[in-house]
Predict the structure.
Amino acid sequence: MWMQYPDVPELYSVDDQYLIGSDLLVKPVTSAGTTTSQVLFPLSDCWFDVDTMQRVELAGAPGTYVAKTVESGIDKIPVYQRGGSIIPRKLRLRRSSYLMINDPYTIYIALNNEMKAEGTLYMDDETTFDHEKRGDYGVATFSSDLASSIIIQNSVTLGNENALPESKGKRMIERIVVMGIASEPKDITLTTQSSATAIPVEFQYDRESQILVIRKPDVSASNQWAIHFNG
């Protein structure tokens, strides 16, 4: 906690919750019979429950923190995604990570107070050392900016010009989930690197939860594309 939030000295001694990277806040349940837990939320960022995808209601000044008691029964570990982050996840349960290589991604976008977010996805063949020997890898950089009508756009940087040849038609994204979008778009369109023609995209929006879901956008994490909205 203190490495990510050095301006909050009260977090220096916290050893019963932690961050995975900079974007996932985890509060482990370590006592038998526990039904609630107290989580310390830094107020420099907003936070979304990864299970409900709802924004956590917090009050206080930026640069401080607030302690909040949350439910943590036998089937719940408190985990929260930082507002301003984009996290790709593979959701199919397999017997090993090797069997997940060709599984599609779900992209979770947690918007910050400025209605922006960003994140990256590192890609290689997940088997050999070609990423070191030949620069055979790629990095997808996702970004959202609702002020510019961009739900999400993807730019890809390759380790060499011939990297990831097996990615054609693979590394697909099956769903995009946007948390914290206050109003329903009139329509959503997709543009790709190969075609500037805007393609209509189907979506679902829940006004109460403020969650937007785009299913099967038919795009790959290894290609460049952008999804915009109107209204």
